[in-house]
Amino acid sequence: MPELPEAEYMVRRLRETGGGTIAKVEILRPGMTGGQPARTLAKLAARQPIVGFGRRAKSVLIELGNGHTIRIRLGMSGHVYHVRDTGILPRFTRIAFLLEQGGALAFEDARTFGDVTIHANERLPEVFADLGQEPLEAAFTAASLTEALRGTRAPIKPLLLDQRRVVGLGNIWAAEALWQSRIHPATPTRDLTAKQLKALHRAIVDVLTKAVENTFKATQTGADFPEADLLAVAVYQRDGQPCRRCKRPVERVIQAGRSTFFCPKCQAA
Length: 269
Description:
By secondary structure, the chain is α+β, with helices and mostly antiparallel strands. The chain has two domains: 124 residues, MutM-like, N-terminal (N-terminal domain of MutM-like DNA repair proteins, Alpha-Beta Barrel), CATH 3.20.190; 121 residues, Helicase, Ruva Protein, domain 3 (Orthogonal Bundle). Helices cover 28% and strands 24% of the residues.
């Protein structure tokens, strides 16, 4: 599924298009507007200039000139593309924003777990009220991470997946950040030392930054939105293979219903 690096990649590629003006919204699959009436999206987005693209957690944002923002939640399989020829939309396009200058912005979602909604800008804080810190923003510091994780004995790995604390850390990058910071995934969060939390903060920023860079590099070879095995991961889905640091076989355990990959030597409890 798309994680923060893929969402960030989409936004940066959309910015390269320069935006344009939405002439019309075509909703090709009913029920993809997140509980809002389809006509609301069609009415508020039509004939509006695009003034910017952004990202919040794993959602792509399209900012409009009328003080509204389109939120595209990517779900399990969603992607947002700029398409030059509206006669050749991606196969699983669910909603298309046709542009006055030609082409379209297409939301493709094979598994249909994503959605597209539109919100007045003044309502966005309410829309995103349950989301935590953005790990690629300057405001994300070791101190703010420490505060977000305060007061719980929950194991650190499942807690990193809690989007109310830090957004965008999916299963892949939580495992990778813990490996880089040498923290065992089952460590009770409140037992982490200040030194470990600083190392974890550095690792989160580092693995996500590199993942964004690697996503751009991989797409240059024709691999659009590559899977984790193309991004030189250290432990994710490498159980039984040697740790890239100490050569001990990587292990896999289940935590909160999700697979966790770690090195039993580098990340000793």
